[in-house]
Write a structure and sequence with these properties.
Length: 389
Amino acid sequence: MLNILIVGAGGHAQSWNAYIKLHPGWKLVGIVDTDTEKLEHATLWGVPEECAYPSIEDAIRWSEEKIDVALITTPIPTHHLIATEAIGLGLHVILEKNMAVGIDQGRELVKLTRKHPELCTMMGTQYRFRPLWWTINQMLAEEDPLIGRLSFLRARSTAYSGTMRSGWRAFMEDIFPSDMFIHHCDLLRYVPGMEIVKVQAQVFKPAWSKWLGSSTVTMNLVMAPKGKERDRDSWVQGQYYGDWQGTGLKAAWEELVEFYGPKGSIRVEPPLERPKESWARDPALPMPLAGEPPGARIIAYLDHDGNQQEVKEIPRRKDVGFNPHGYIDQMYLLDEMLECIKSKGKQQPATCFEDGYKSFLVTRAAIESSRTGSAIWLPKYWLEPLPEP
Ligand SMILES: NC(=O)c1ccc[n+]([C@@H]2O[C@H](COP(=O)([O-])OP(=O)(O)OC[C@H]3O[C@@H](n4cnc5c(N)ncnc54)[C@H](O)[C@@H]3O)[C@@H](O)[C@H]2O)c1
């Protein structure tokens, strides 16, 4: 059994706590928050009132139970410092996105983890571990994929998130890139199993929007198989449009992603009948908690002998990450973290800081591209930089 400390007892921490309670390998042993009112209500989290602390240091000093893991669910601008503190105190860390605000902060975190190989780190980018994306990831990883070798992808996610974001989000200059786009960047890397090497983007808000920060990203991207980043012949092109001030034609991310190859394409499509709630439980999923919007379908459009087209639905796989428990989402993350900690860090989570840095970097490179008007070559920021070919 591993003991976990929630740092930042807010909205998203509550969803984590539901998974922690469900998972037989984990126990919540305390909460940390700078809001004393939150600390006064510690029992609502299922811990005794004395297990509420103003800092991680205090938690370690006063907790009667050994703390193994810090789960950091504080506002984004605090992440880099709190994660640095937790690692310095010898804790394994699950860190919510976005990793940091600045590229340098992210790099420093990765360097720190390299000095502590015995500790496990994990980013809370859980979308990867959903049946939809796992299924397409496995399809594209086949030696001869149904659509042939991926050559182009297109993704669109539009939603309307209100006239103003509330709390700390309202004041973040680039809230959409840091809060939502990061999930998409992580999927754009994970689903085809490639690295994003170059981006040219615009990060903005519509002129009529009252938001203080940017709500929208449009981006052209270039991807490459790992190890072939400088080989232009291996590059795959893509286009992305993500919007939190979308009006009229709104679409959840899961509904509009297309993958093209020489033999056909795969499109993620909405269900034939729209569910009343976009996040209602999907009976087809193996787990009761969150997951993907119900009913999203994977449809393959295949060309035979020129233009004769076959259209078929590909069933979603339920064996996400080949895990024997059928866990998805944050429950999968907890399970993976447990296994990695058991290995004493020899095995690191798929979204460890080293990997998560590359998804985080895409969000920052998009902002840099928008500000400078230039295309950004991302491997120049990697810890082992690569020159642009
Ligand atoms: N992975 C996901 O799908 C997902 C979804 C929602 C939010 N998140 C992430 O979770 C994090 C929190 O978001 P939220 O919506 O729960 O925010 P929130 O405002 O509801 O909660 C943040 C909590 O952190 C506390 N806090 C602030 N500064 C602190 C500090 N220095 N030390 C300790 N506690 C501090 C606040 O008092 C509050 O209780 C963000 O990083 C966000 O990006 C991830």
